[in-house]
Structures are given as C-alpha cells and as structure tokens.
Specification:
The two termini are 33 Å apart. Helix 2 links the parallel strand 6 and strand 7. This protein is α+β, with helices and mostly antiparallel strands. The longest helix is centred in the last third of the chain and has 14 residues. It contains nine helices and 16 strands. The protein has a five-stranded antiparallel β-sheet, sandwiched between helices. A four-stranded parallel β-sheet has the order 2-1-6-7, with helices on both faces. The protein has a four-stranded antiparallel β-sheet with strand order 8-11-9-10, covered by helices on one side. It has three domains: 95 residues, Rossmann fold, CATH 3.40.50; 63 residues, ATP-grasp fold, A domain (Dna Ligase, domain 1, 2-Layer Sandwich); 106 residues, D-amino Acid Aminotransferase, Chain A, domain 1 (2-Layer Sandwich). 41% of the residues are buried.
C-alpha cells in the first residue's frame, strides 16, 4: 500500500513513528510538507503537485495538519479525497474539530458532558456571561489558541472582567468556561482509533499550574478509564467525524467532561506513558479501511 503523510516536518516524533510503522508493515510511505503542495483543480482530473511534479497515486493519506495551517492543509487533504485517496481523517472532520466553538455546540447537541461554556461579542454582556458559567473562578480561552496558549484562569470576578476587556481590546474571539476545581490541574487524554480508545494517559500540570499540557511542563502517566469515560471519548470523536482523535477529558463530580477533540494528537507522550504502539494502530486502521474512492463526508445530524 502507498501511504501519504501530510506533515510540515518529517523529523517530528509523531511523523517518524508513522513512517516507521508503515515501513515495518511493508508499505511505501512518503511525507509531504502541506505548504509546498499545490493543486490543479480541473474538471475530471484533480491533481496535487509537489516541488514541480505531480504526485500519486496513493491508497491512503494520514493528515498531520498543524492548527496554524488548517485552511491550506484541509484544502490539500480535500484534493486527495477528490483523487479517490482514502483519508484517515477527512477534511470536513478536521475543519469541524479545529473550530472550538462549533465543536462545543456539536457536543452539546449530542448531550456529551462538557464544562459550561459561554460566548458573547459585546462587552456589555460580560456580567451575565460570567453568571452563565457559574461566576469566578472561570477559564478564559482564545478560540485560536493551541497547546495551552491563550488560556487564562481568572480567580476573581474583577480579574475575569479585566482579562475579557483586554482580549476584547485585541478584537480576539474568546470562550468563557467554568473552572472544574476537582480536576486538580489534571486531565485525561484518550487516544481514539476507530471505535475504541486504544491508549489513555493522565496529564498533571506542574505545581501552581492549572493547565496540564506536556508542552508546559506537565507530566503524564498511564491511567485506567471507566466505562463512562471510554464511551464519552468514542462518542466525542464520532460527533466530530474523526477516525483518529485525541479526546481530552476532565474528571468532575458530575462525570467526564470533554474539553477538546484533537484531530492531530501527538504520539510521543502517550506512547511513552502507555508503552503502546499507537502509530502502528493508526497504520493498521488505514490498512483495514483504505479502498479506492472510499471517501465521503461524515455529516453530523
């Protein structure tokens, strides 16, 4: 099987592991910098060119598209789909998951537990917005932020008002969410492949830090999931239409709450914490499902 991987850097851990996993199984794997891909959008003959040459044919494509290049990356992925290449995660699903507000709205519609969240435009609505989220402390998030960047814990109402005012002054779109104190600065990353959670780790923020991101000094260890946590993670991935997803869950007094569904989850932390060959499971999923022309848009009803 011929597999294309869309990644800005073939030396990144996750990309290297996917290459290794594919080659161990006898597949031909090629990595393409998504920003160097350009397209010929012609009737009946869609093409992708890379560094002066048309590429293909491929049996499957694994997108590892960074948040900062979502628009161009999903356009390239869509072109692969038009060429009949099986996408492990479809372009529509990746786009859907990258929109934090839309993601929460879809999860809400399907009744999946999540922190109470508020969104408003006018600063005149700040007081009521904070009340909707249960009052201070609250977490304030930039809609465009990733890896914990642009996430602020406002411990008092005055602090929350000041942070919201500052972000409004920058014309930034923000979410306000209730603070789940009982989570204790930790969350659970569930790695979903297909219809099951194949690995899970508990991430703990460093002392004094409410964000548990490993990039911010957090630590990770193997954790055992409850049946409800497993079901919640799989359902959240399905709502987004993702076959491969990192679902971040907070353990709260009212059950598991989904914080985010990531379409390009990092593999380094979770493989180290669990000892599992997650990259191999992703390639194996592609093997089982890749068929010529097997592309369709997963619609959320």
């Amino acid at each position: 099987m011929r597999i294309a991987i869309l990644s800005r850097n073939p030396r990144l851990y996750s990309t290297r592991r996917l290459i290794e996993a594919g080659e161990v199984r006898g597949h031909e794997v090629q990595v393409f910098d998504v920003l160097r891909c350009y397209m010929n959008i012609a009737a009946g003959k869609p093409e992708i060119h890379y560094k002066g040459k048309a590429i293909g044919p491929f049996d499957a494509v694994i997108p590892r598209i960074g948040a900062s290049v979502t628009f161009h990356g999903t356009a390239v992925l869509r072109q692969f789909e038009m060429m009949g290449v099986y996408p492990v995660n479809e372009s529509v699903a990746v786009t859907r998951s990258r929109d934090k507000l839309r993601s929460l709205q879809l999860l809400s519609r399907k009744g999946i537990g999540m922190p109470v969240s508020g969104f408003a435009h006018s600063p005149d609505d700040t007081d009521d917005l904070l009340e909707l989220c249960g009052g201070a402390p609250v977490v304030i998030k930039l809609l465009e932020g990733t890896q914990g960047i642009g996430v602020v814990l406002a411990e008092t109402r005055k602090a929350a008002e000041s942070v919201i005012e500052a972000f409004r002054g920058l014309d930034a779109q923000i979410l306000v969410q209730e603070f789940i104190a009982e989570a204790g600065g930790s969350d659970v990353r569930c790695l979903v492949v297909g219809d099951r959670v194949v690995a899970a780790m508990k991430r703990q923020g460093k002392e004094g830090e409410f964000r548990s991101n490993l990039h911010r000094g957090g630590t990770a260890k193997l954790t055992k999931l409850s049946k409800e946590e497993r079901e919640t993670a799989v359902r959240a991935a399905k709502v987004m239409g993702l076959n491969v997803a990192g679902v971040d869950i907070l353990r709260s007094d009212r059950g598991p709450l989904v914080m985010e569904v990531n379409s390009s989850p990092g593999l380094e932390g979770i493989e180290a914490a669990t000892g599992k060959d997650v990259a191999g499971m992703i390639v194996e999923f592609a093997e089982r499902h890749a068929r010529p022309g097997r592309t369709y848009t997963r619609r959320t009803r």
